[in-house]
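User: Reviewer 2 asked us to show a designed sequence for the structure in our supplementary figure. I'm pasting the structure tokens here. Could you produce the per-position amino acids so we can include them in the response letter?
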């Protein structure tokens, strides 16, 4: 009786195991058979292993089939590794197929590195085949034109369009579109700023494109500049005249301040002279106050008589009379 139960339990266990394998077989049989018919064979054991490693077997099989049909041999190990690294396996596979059709050399390792770096590798391949146009400046950031001033002081407002092609070899570590826009803007400002007159720029706006393009602005970026076209150029304000007017106003205020300073100094000197006159008058009055004392002293000492004193008074009276007559005239 006991041995019968053991045998029954063993049969149940074996049946459950067989049922589990049968369920796994039917679950992955479709993927395995599809890969087999497509020439991109992936073993059933590997499919089960992917499932156990939380890898989507359908993504790996479909990507491998896509690559195999395009004549690109990429092992499922590489695809699985990229999936585990949180990469976009489908996008990388599409990029490899697109690059292969366009005869662009793009190894899987480089495509995977570009994808893991956060770049859209499929869009990069498309941009390599179909160049992209970048507006300069970027209107999405609120700036509509690049403003620059020629040597004659006239401001020019420029809009440019830069045609670029993705450089696959420099996508990892290469600068982005913002760098291209900044460099082109700097080149436009420098070119206009070195022009003697704004009229020369308006007559030949293509000189801006040639000069800027010759600077090699795409060095170290993820793009190759194909052309720089001036979409629009307008005359802005007369910055030179405005600066001169501002300078003249500043000079005027400076000269007015200096004149006010000199006027204040002159007034101060005038007050000093008036004070000096008052001081001298006080000295005269003080000296005149000593005369009666001197006369009294002369009387006491006998150096001055009464007749002498009257003659002195007559002379003073005569002098006063003449002064009053002269003043009346």
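Assistant: Here is a per-position design you can include in the supplement:
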């Amino acid at each position: 009786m006991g041995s019968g139960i053991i045998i029954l339990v063993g049969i149940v266990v074996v049946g459950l195991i067989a049922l589990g394998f049968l369920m796994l077989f039917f679950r992955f049989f479709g993927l395995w058979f599809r890969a087999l018919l497509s020439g991109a064979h992936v073993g059933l054991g590997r499919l089960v292993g992917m499932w156990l490693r939380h890898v989507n077997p359908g993504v790996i099989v479909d990507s491998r089939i896509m690559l195999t049909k395009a004549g690109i041999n990429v092992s499922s190990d590489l695809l699985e590794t990229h999936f585990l690294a949180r990469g976009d396996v489908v996008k990388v596979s599409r990029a490899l197929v697109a690059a292969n059709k366009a005869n662009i050399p793009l190894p899987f390792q480089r495509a995977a590195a570009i994808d893991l770096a956060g770049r859209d590798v499929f869009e990069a391949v498309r941009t390599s085949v179909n160049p992209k146009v970048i507006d300069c400046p970027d209107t999405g950031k609120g700036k509509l034109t690049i403003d620059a001033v020629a040597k004659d002081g006239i401001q020019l407002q420029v809009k440019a369009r830069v045609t670029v092609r993705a450089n696959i070899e420099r996508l990892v570590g290469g600068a982005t579109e913002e760098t291209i826009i900044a460099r082109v803007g700097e080149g436009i400002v420098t070119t206009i700023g070195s022009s003697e007159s704004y009229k020369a720029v308006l007559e030949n706006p293509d000189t801006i494109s040639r000069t800027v393009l010759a600077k090699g602005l795409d060095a170290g970026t993820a793009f190759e500049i194909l052309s720089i076209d001036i979409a629009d150029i307008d005359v802005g304000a007369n910055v030179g005249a405005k600066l001169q007017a501002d300078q003249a106003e500043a000079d005027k205020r400076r000269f007015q301040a200096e004149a006010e300073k000199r006027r204040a100094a002159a007034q101060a000197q005038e007050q000093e002279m008036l004070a000096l006159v008052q001081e001298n008058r006080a000295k005269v009055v003080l000296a005149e106050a000593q005369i009666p004392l001197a006369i009294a002293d002369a009387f006491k000492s006998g150096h001055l008589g009464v007749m002498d004193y009257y003659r002195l008074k007559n002379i003073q009276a005569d002098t006063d009379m003449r002064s009053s007559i002269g003043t009346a005239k």
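For the response letter, you might also mention the following. The first strand starts at residue 132 and ends at 136. DSSP finds twelve helices and four strands in the chain.
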